[in-house]
Automatic annotation (TrEMBL):
Belongs to the class-II pyridoxal-phosphate-dependent aminotransferase family. Histidinol-phosphate aminotransferase subfamily. The modification N6-(pyridoxal phosphate)lysine is found at residue 229. It comes from Nocardiopsis sediminis. The gene is hisC. Keywords: Amino-acid biosynthesis, Aminotransferase, Histidine biosynthesis, Pyridoxal phosphate, Transferase. This is Histidinol-phosphate aminotransferase. InterPro entries: Aminotrans_II_pyridoxalP_BS, Aminotransferase_I/II_large, HisP_aminotrans, PyrdxlP-dep_Trfase, PyrdxlP-dep_Trfase_major, PyrdxlP-dep_Trfase_small.
Amino acid sequence: MTETGTEISIDDLPIRDDLRGRSPYGAPQLDVPVALNTNENPYPPSERLAGALAGAVAATAAGLNRYPDRDAVRLRAGLAAYLGHGLDTRGVWAANGSNEVLLQILQAFGGPGRTAMGFEPSYSMHPIITGVTGTGWSPQQRGPGFGIDPDAAVAAITREQPDIVFLTSPNNPTGTALPLEVIERVAAAAPGMVVVDEAYAEFRREGTPSALSLLPDHPRLIVTRTMSKAFALAGARVGYLAAHPAVVDALQLVRLPYHLSAVTQAVAATALDFADELLGAVKQLREERDSLVAWLRDRGHAVADSDANFVLFGEFADRSAVWRGLLDHGVLIREVGPPGWLRVTVGTPDEMAAFRTALTGVTAGGGQP
Ligand SMILES: *Cc1c(COP(=O)(O)O)cnc(C)c1O
């Protein structure tokens, strides 16, 4: 780099005014013994699955001189079969993580002069991706217990007429799932698209519904999912959605050609073949989650009901001190959500034992709720 090159900073570049002063999104990627901060699945692919993935990549490698299937038909068919609900390839779309799916939704249905609405606290990537596409953001607040009051939601939608409404269920960072009634009321009131982000769907407790069942009656409803959490495939970057086929047609106007690599498609399709095995681990994580919630409540903490693979708990006068104290014990969790609360991802039994020991140590000397 030249002398002048080193003196140039981002501020010297003709960057968009609305990007000036922003910092890149992301949780700290610290090297710690127990990482419970990004809602990853703690169970790596089994040897059998890892072998199958390697085989799929090897088979793909011989054809990498060619562009991939632009429409990812095999993968979409597999995802449709996995989701059920009468879905087929035309009603399913896939991209590099559900974050890219969300970006494509914003590109097709948002943009300058348009607005997206969300109910906070929720997934912070929703307003960020919204902003990146020049779409306005209309934040609304969740109510008691981190739920969404349908009357308040309908009133906000009627008043603001957003082009896109985000509903996260189960919600991140609170773990809260929405009753179908709330989604139906929102879908009926919304003039534009309604996106239900179901990144944690597989972790729902028994009897908690999915918005997939509403798709046949709601052509402007989109349900997004990911292979990052339940399928333990965060490193592969695979997200997808289910919606009316016309929605998929719209997304194809904004997707980059060949956006999903042949390697990614092969890896994702192969992992789908192991759905039963992977969902077995999810069941274990759900049980671990439920006992974590019970343990935290026993200790007198406030704990949000969780249908996800993480738990939001509090309330701490100084949550940063608790977060740092846990880190001193080698346990990294996430300082996110409403003031006073912390979020911990559900890990292996050993990791959760380390978390319980660390939290007991950190809260023993005061700083308790
Ligand atoms: C983790 C998460 C995602 C997943 O993003 P990917 O890009 O698929 O890894 C999407 N939505 C929410 C609410 C999440 O917490």
